[in-house]
Input
Amino acid sequence: MTPSLDPLLVLVLLLNLFLLGTTRLRAVIGSSALQGVVLGVLAFVVHGHAAIEAFLVAAGAVIVKGFIIPRLLYKAMRDAAIHREVEPFIGFIPSLLLGAVGAGLSVLFAQTLPLVPEHKATLLLPTSFATVLTGFIILTTRRKAITQVVGYLVLENGIFVMGLALLQAMPLLVEAGVLLDLFVGILVMGIIINHISREFSSMDTARLSSLKE
Amino acid sequence: MLLALVIVPLVLGAVAFATPSPKLRPWLVPLGAVAHAALTLYFLMQPAAAALGGWLVLDPLGKVVLGFVSLLFLICAFYVPGYLALRPGRKTSIFCAALLAFLGTMSLMILSHHLGLMWVAIESATLSSAPLLYFNRNQRSLEATWKYLLIGSVGIALALFGSFFLAYSALKGGMGSSLLFEDLVHDAPHLSIPWLHVAFVILLVGYGTKMGLAPMHTWKPDAYGEAPGLVGALLAGGLTNCAFLAILRFVQICGAAGEGAFARHLLVVMGLVSMAVAGIFMAGQRDYKRMLAYSSVEHMGILVFGIGIGGLGTFGALLHLVNNGLGKGLLFLSAGNIHRAFGSKRTEDVTGALRLAPASAALFLAGFFAITGSPPFGPFMSEFTILNAAVTGGRFATAALFLLMLAIVFIGMGATVLRVVQGEPSDIAKARGYKERFLTVGPAVVFLVLVVLMGVYIPSPVSGLLHKAAASLELQ
Output
C-alpha cells in the first residue's frame, strides 16, 4: 500500500458529507462526478504497478463516472428545468449528521471484521462502507428523481472502493462490463426521468404514488 | 458453443429492431425462441459443458433453470404475435428487440460461473426488461418502470457488494481473491467465516430483491400490475428464477464452507416472512394482476423455504421452480386476455369473465387451483414434497406455519379470482366486443397441459435433471 491513499480516501469521505448537505442539484451532480474522478485516481495509485490493466480500469472509471454520466445528468436537469432539491424526507442537517455518524460506525464495523494485514492501517474498507451508506441515505431521503440516481451512483462508488481491495478478482472484462451496465442504467434512468417530467410536469418522485395498496 | 445461447437471441433482437415490416417483426420472437430451445435441448443432452476458460459452465443446476426458462420463453413467444395484433398503434420494434435481448441476457446469467460476470448479466437482463414494462407508455407504467429500475438496480448493486465480501473472505483465508465459482467452492473450507456470513446476508438481500422476497418485494406488485401479461409471465418464471439460481450458488458455497446450517436457517425465515406478507396483501386485493404479483412473492418464499429445509425439500424446491413457473405462465397469459377483454384489471369493473371470455376465464380459474396447490396439478406435488421434508425432519412447528400460510393465501386469492370469473359482465365490457383467438388462448392451454402433466407424471428425463441438480446442492 502506498502512503498517499488515505488523503484521497478522506476526500471521498468529505465529498460524501458535502453531497448530503447541499441543496443545489448542479453541485450534487458535480461532487458525485468529482468523487468518480478521485476513485479513478485511487484505482491507479493502488494498482499502478499492475501495468496496463489497472490503467484501463482507472481511465474507464474517470471517463464514465467523471464525465459521461454527469453530462447525462446535467442534460436531464436542464430538460426538466429544476435546480434545487426541496424538502427532503429527512432534512439536510439531520442527514448530514446521519452520514457523519455512519462514517464513524463504518470505521468501527471494519475493525470488527478480520482484515488482511495490508488493509489494517488504511481507510479503504471504512470508506467503502461509509460511501455505500451515504448512497442509501440519499436514495431514501431525497425526492427528486435525479438526486435518487446520484444516490445510486454514490452507492456504486462505495462498491468500487471495495473492489480496489480485490482488483485481481475482477478482471478487466468484468470491470468494463460493470461500467457499461452502470452507464446504460443511468442512460435508461435519464430517459425515464425525461418522461416523468413530461408526464407529471415534475421530477418529484413523491408524485409517483398512484400505485399502492 | 455455449455462447450461442446468448448470441443467437441478441443477434435476432438486433434484426427485429431493424426489420421495417411491422407484420413480420413479431414473428421473429418465436423464431428466436425456437432456435434457443433447439440449442438448449442439444446442450441438455450433452454432459456438463464449459466455455471461455470456465467462465461459462452448464452444470446440473444451470440445466434445470436454462431448460425451464427456454421452455417458458418458447411458449410465451407464440403469444407475442397475437398479443401485439390486439394492441395496434404501439411501437413494437423496441418491444420485440427487448424480449429477445432479455432471453439472451438471462441465458448469460444462468451460464455464468464468474460472480462478476453473473452480476453484469443480471443487471443487463434488468435493463433489457425495462422497456417491456414501459410498453403501455402511460403514467402508471412509468411509475412502475421507475420503481422497478431503481429498486432492482440498487438490489443488484448490493449483490455486487456481497460478491466482493465473498472475494474478501477468500483473500483473508489466504487464497488470493477470486470470483470464479469453482475456485470459491474448492477453497470454501478455508474461507474467513465472519466475512462469509456478512457476504451471504448481503447477497441474500441483493439477489432476494431481484427475486422479490419480502420485505424487498415492493417493486413487484407495481411491475407485474402494469406490465403486459406475457411480460409478467417472463418475469415471474424467468428473471426471478435466475435470481434464485444465484442464491442457490451461494448456498452451495456456504455448504462447502461448512456453514450450510447458517444459510438454511436464514432461508427458512425469509421464506416464511415472504409467504406471510403475500397472504396479508392478497386478502381483499382488488387488482387481479397485483394479486398475481403477491402470489409470486409467496412462491419465491416457498422456493427458498424448500431449500432451507434441505434434504427432500431441495428436490421439492427445484420441482417447484418448474411448477410455479408453468402455473405463473398460465395465470399471467389468461389474466392478460381478461384484461384485454374488459379493459380493466380492477375487480369492480371485471366480473363475469366466464361469459365474456370463457376460455381465458376457465384457464384463469384452473391456474388459480394449480398455483394454490390443489391436486392433480404440479404445484401440489412440489409443495407436498417440501411439507413432507419439513415433517420428516421433525420441524413440526415450521411445517404447521407453512401449511397455515398456504391456507391463508388460498382463501385470499380465491375471493378475488371468483369475483373475476363469476357473475354478469357489465354492459361497457360487453360493448368492447372482445373475441378469444387461437394465438392468445393456445399458449395458455399449453401451460395448463404441462402443469397437469407435472402433477400426474414427471417425465423421466426431467426428473433425472432435477435429481442431479438436487444432488449437486446436497453433496457440497
